[in-house]
C-alpha cells in the first residue's frame, strides 16, 4: 500500500498509510536524530540519514499481487487498478520456448475500492477476494462486481467455492459459507496469520493449529515456525514451509473424520495421528503449488524444483526472481511471473509426474503403461528416480546413457550387461572397474580379459599370482616394461625366480643401491659386478663416496660368512631347478623354518655328517610356503613381497634397504631365501 514516511529528532522513523493516515509501523535504530529520507524511484528501497550514520531499508515485497485460476485466467493489481489476461488468448503463432516472455494481451478489469494487500481466486475461479486497509471485498471474476464485503485483516478461501475465513485483530477468526457467517473461532493464543485449504490453519508464534471448517474443532497442532502452507488439490498431502526447510505431511482424512463423527473429546493438541510426516527437505521455499501429488516450488537460489517420491529434481535455473502462478495440464506447462508482471512458462510433463506418483504408490504395472508415452530424453531422469527408490533393475532397463547404464549394471553385479556396455564404450576406466567386479565374483577368465583391455597391470599381477599362471606372468613382463611400470616387471621377475633379471632391472632403472642390497640378499655371487657399476655411477655425483664402497672380491673380510652364503646360493639354485607345485603345499607346510646357513655351518664342523643322504634336511628347507589356492594362491619364490629371512634387518622388496643392516643377517637371507613354490600353468581358478 502507499505510505508516507516521516523522521524526527527523537530518532524514530514512522510509516503511515497514505489513504487512512493510520500509523503502520515505527522504527528506532538508536542512531540519534533523523535528518533526511531518500527514496529510489521504481523500487522499495528507502535511505535514512541520522546523526550517527545512514540506514538503508527495503519496504514491502517484490512479489506481485496476482492470482491465476485453473483455466488460465490471470488477475493482478497495479495499485488500485485491476488488470486481467488469459493464457488461452495467446496468438497461435506465439513462441512457447521455455523462459521466454509471453506476449499476453492485457485488459483493464476495473478498480478496487480499497488498496489491495492480498488477492486470490476461490477454488472454482468464479470469485476473487481482495483484502487490505482492514477490510475485504469479494468480486465476481468476470464482471468485477461486488459480491460481499466486511472487516478483515486477512482473508483465506476454503475448499468449497463459497467457504472462507477472515481474521479480525489477533484473537478472532470468522468462518463463512455461502457468504453467510457460520461460526467464530476465539483461540487461546495470538493469531498471527491464516491459511486456507482442506483445513483452516491458524499460525501462532512458533506453531500452526489446524481446524475443521464445519464445526471449528481443532484437528492437530504442529509445533513448527511456519511461513506458508500448501494443500494438494486432493487434500491428501500438505506442505509446510519454514525459514530454511519444508515438510511434506500426509493427511489421514478417514481417521480424522471417524474421530470427529464419533463425538470423542479432542484435547488442545488435536488428534495425534491426523498427520504423518512423509519427508523433510532442507531448502527455503519462495512460492509453491501442487501438481497432483508433486510439490512444485522455486527456492531462494531461484531454481525451479519439484518434489515427488522423496526425491527433489531441478527443472530449470531461473535467470531472475520469479514467482509461481499455476500449472495447465492441457499444455503441460507451468507459468511464472516476475515483479514487472512479465509472464513466462516452462515445460512440465504431466505424464512424467503421473509416472513418478504411480511408482511412489507401488503401482508398477500402471506406471509401465505411462512409461511408453514418455519422450526418450526423459528416460534417464526416470531411471535416476527409480534408482532413488531402490528399483535399480528397473532403472537399468529404462536408462539410455551408456555411462549411467554401466554404473547401474555394476551396482547390480550384472556382468554380461556391463561387459557389453564396456565393449561399446571401450574405456580403460570401465574395463578396470569391470575387471575388479569379475574378480570379486570369481569370474577369473572374464577378469583377465577386462584387466588386459583396461591395461590394469597391478590387477593382472594379482590375478596371475592367484591363479599360479607362470606363462601369464612371463607375458606380463614386456607389457609392464612397455608402460614404464618397472615395479610390476620387477615383481613378476621375482615371482618367477629370475633373480638376475631383477638385478638387471634395478640397474637399468638407476636403482644401484637397491641392486647391490638385492644381490647381497639373494645373489651374493653378483655383488662384485653390481658394486662396480654402483661405484661408476656414484663417481658422477660424489667420487669420495664412490671410493668408500667395498668390493666383496677385494675385501672379503668385511663380509662375514660370505663363503657360506655362496654355498647356500648354489644349493638354492639347484632347488629352483626342481620347483614344488603349489598344489603340494600341505605336504611341505612349516619347511621354511630351517636356515640353510646354520645347516651348512653344522655340516662344516661335522655335526651332521651324512644328514643330507639320510634325508634329515628337508628337500626345500628355508622356503616359505605359499598357499595353493584362494586369494593368495600359487605365489612363487619365497613369498615375493615378504621378508626372506627370520632374522632382524632383512631387506624387503618395495622398501629402500638401509646401509646399517647387520651383514650376517643379509648373508643368511641369501642362503635361506631362494626356492620355488611352484607357479603352475593351469592352476585352478
UniProtKB/TrEMBL annotation:
GO molecular function: structural molecule activity
Domain spans labelled COPA/B TPR: 355-535
Pfam families the record matches: B-prop_COPA_B_2nd, TPR_COPA_B, WD40
SUPFAM superfamilies assigned: WD40 repeat-like
Location of the region described as Disordered in the Swiss-Prot/TrEMBL record: 610-630, 642-685
Compositionally biased residues, Polar residues: 643-654
Gene Ontology biological process terms from the UniProt entry: endoplasmic reticulum to Golgi vesicle-mediated transport; intra-Golgi vesicle-mediated transport; intracellular protein transport; retrograde vesicle-mediated transport, Golgi to endoplasmic reticulum
Positions annotated as WD repeat: 1-26
Entry GO CC: COPI vesicle coat; Golgi membrane
Keyword field: Cytoplasm, Cytoplasmic vesicle, ER-Golgi transport, Golgi apparatus, Membrane, Protein transport, Repeat, Transport, WD repeat
Subcellular localization(s) per the UniProt record: Cytoplasmic vesicle, COPI-coated vesicle membrane; Golgi apparatus membrane
Membrane protein topology class: Peripheral membrane protein
Ranges in coiled-coil conformation: none
Alphabetized CDD domains for the sequence: Coatomer_WDAD_beta-like
Stretches assigned to the COPA/B second beta-propeller domain: 79-338
InterPro entries xrefs: Beta-prop_COPA/B_2nd, Coatomer_complex_subunit, TPR_COPA_B, WD40/YVTN_repeat-like_dom_sf, WD40_repeat_dom_sf, WD40_rpt
Self-association and partners: Oligomeric complex that consists of at least the alpha, beta, beta', gamma, delta, epsilon and zeta subunits.
Family indicated by similarity: Belongs to the WD repeat COPB2 family.
Functional note: The coatomer is a cytosolic protein complex that binds to dilysine motifs and reversibly associates with Golgi non-clathrin-coated vesicles, which further mediate biosynthetic protein transport from the ER, via the Golgi up to the trans Golgi network. Coatomer complex is required for budding from Golgi membranes, and is essential for the retrograde Golgi-to-ER transport of dilysine-tagged proteins.
Protein name: Beta'-coat protein
Amino acid at each position: 500500500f502507499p505510505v508516507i514516511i516521516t523522521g524526527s529528532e527523537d530518532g524514530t522513523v514512522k510509516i503511515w498509510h497514505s489513504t487512512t493516515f493510520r500509523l503502520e509501523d515505527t522504527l528506532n535504530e538508536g542512531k540519534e536524530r533523523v535528518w533526511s529520507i531518500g527514496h529510489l524511484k521504481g523500487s522499495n528501497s528507502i535511505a535514512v540519514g541520522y546523526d550517527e550514520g545512514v540506514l538503508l531499508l527495503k519496504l514491502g515485497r517484490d512479489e506481485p499481487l496476482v492470482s491465476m485460476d485453473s483455466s488460465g485466467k490471470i488477475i493482478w493489481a497495479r495499485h488500485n487498478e485491476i488488470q486481467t489476461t488469459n493464457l488461452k488468448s495467446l496468438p497461435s503463432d506465439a513462441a512457447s520456448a521455455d523462459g521466454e516472455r509471453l506476449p499476453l494481451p492485457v485488459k483493464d478489469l476495473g478498480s478496487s475500492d480499497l488498496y489491495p494487500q492480498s488477492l486470490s481466486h476461490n477454488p472454482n475461479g468464479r470469485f476473487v477476494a481482495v483484502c487490505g486497509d482492514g477490510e475485504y471485498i469479494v468480486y465476481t471474476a468476470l464482471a468485477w462486481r461486488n459480491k460481499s464485503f466486511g472487516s478483515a485483516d486477512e482473508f483465506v478461501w476454503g475448499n468449497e467455492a463459497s467457504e472462507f475465513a477472515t481474521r479480525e485483530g489477533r484473537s478472532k477468526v470468522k468462518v463463512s459459507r455461502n457468504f453467510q457467517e457460520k461460526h467464530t473461532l476465539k483461540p487461546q493464543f495470538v493469531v498471527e496469520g491464516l491459511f486456507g485449504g482442506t483445513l483452516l490453519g491458524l499460525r501462532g508464534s512458533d506453531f500452526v493449529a489446524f481446524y475443521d471448517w464445519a464445526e471449528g474443532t481443532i484437528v492437530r497442532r504442529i509445533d513448527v515456525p511456519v511461513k506458508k502452507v500448501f494443500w494438494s488439490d486432493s487434500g491428501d498431502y500438505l506442505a509446510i514451509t519454514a525459514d530454511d526447510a519444508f515438510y511434506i505431511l500426509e493427511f489421514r482424512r478417514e481417521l480424522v473424520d471417524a474421530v470427529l463423527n464419533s463425538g470423542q473429546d479432542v484435547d488442545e493438541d488435536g488428534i495425534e495421528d491426523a498427520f504423518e510426516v512423509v519427508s523433510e527437505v532442507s531448502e527455503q521455499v519462495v512460492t509453491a503449488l501442487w501438481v497432483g501429488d508433486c510439490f512444485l516450488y522455486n527456492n531462494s537460489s531461484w531454481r525451479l524444483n519439484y518434489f515427488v517420491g522423496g526425491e527433489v529434481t531441478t527443472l530449470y535455473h531461473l535467470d531472475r526472481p520469479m514467482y509461481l502462478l499455476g500449472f495447465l495440464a492441457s499444455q503441460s506447462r507451468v507459468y511464472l511471473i516476475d515483479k514487472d508482471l512479465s509472464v513466462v512458462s516452462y515445460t512440465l510433463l504431466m505424464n512424467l509426474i503421473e509416472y513418478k506418483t504411480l511408482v511412489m504408490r507401488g503401482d508398477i504395472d500402471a506406471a509401465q503403461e505411462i512409461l511408453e508415452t514418455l519422450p526418450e530424453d526423459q528416460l534417464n531422469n526416470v531411471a535416476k528416480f527409480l534408482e532413488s527408490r531402490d528399483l535399480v533393475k528397473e532403472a537399468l532397463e529404462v536408462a539410455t546413457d551408456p555411462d549411467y547404464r554401466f554404473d547401474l549394471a555394476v551396482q547390480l553385479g550384472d556382468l554380461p550387461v556391463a561387459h557389453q556396455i564396456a565393449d561399446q564404450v571401450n574405456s580403460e576406466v570401465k574395463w578396470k572397474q569391470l575387471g575388479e567386479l569379475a574378480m570379486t565374483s570369481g569370474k577369473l577368465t572374464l577378469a583377465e580379459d577386462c584387466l588386459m583391455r583396461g591395461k590394469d597391470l597391478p590387477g593382472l599381477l594379482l590375478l596371475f599370482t592367484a591363479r599360479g599362471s607362470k606363462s601369464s606372468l612371463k607375458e606380463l613382463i614386456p607389457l609392464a616394461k612397455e608402460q614404464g611400470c618397472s615395479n610390476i616387471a620387477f615383481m613378476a621377475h621375482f615371482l618367477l625366480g629370475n633373480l638376475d633379471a631383477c638385478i638387471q632391472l634395478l640397474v637399468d632403472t638407476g636403482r644401484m643401491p637397491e641392486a647391490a642390497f638385492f644381490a647381497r640378499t639373494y645373489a651374493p655371487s653378483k655383488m662384485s659386478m653390481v658394486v662396480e657399476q654402483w661405484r661408476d655411477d656414484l663417481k658422477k655425483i660424489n667420487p669420495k663416496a664412490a671410493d668408500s664402497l667395498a668390493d666383496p672380491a677385494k675385501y672379503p673380510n668385511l663380509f662375514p660368512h660370505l663363503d657360506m652364503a655362496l654355498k647356500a646360493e648354489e644349493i638354492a639354485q639347484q632347488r629352483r631347478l626342481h620347483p614344488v607345485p603349489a598344489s603340494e603345499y600341505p605336504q611341505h607346510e612349516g619347511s621354511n623354518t630351517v636356515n640353510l646357513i646354520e645347516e651348512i655351518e653344522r655340516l662344516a664342523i661335522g655335526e651332521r655328517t651324512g644328514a643330507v643322504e639320510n634325508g634329515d634336511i628337508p628337500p626345500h628347507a628355508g622356503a616359505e610356503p605359499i598357499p595353493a589356492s584362494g586369494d593368495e594362491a600359487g605365489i612363487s619364490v619365497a613369498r615375493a613381497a615378504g621378508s626372506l629371512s627370520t632374522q632382524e634387518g632383512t631387506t624387503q622388496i618395495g622398501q629402500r634397504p638401509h646401509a646399517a643392516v647387520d651383514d650376517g643377517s643379509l648373508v643368511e637371507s641369501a642362503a635361506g631365501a631362494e626356492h620355488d613354490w611352484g607357479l603352475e600353468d593351469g592352476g585352478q581358478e
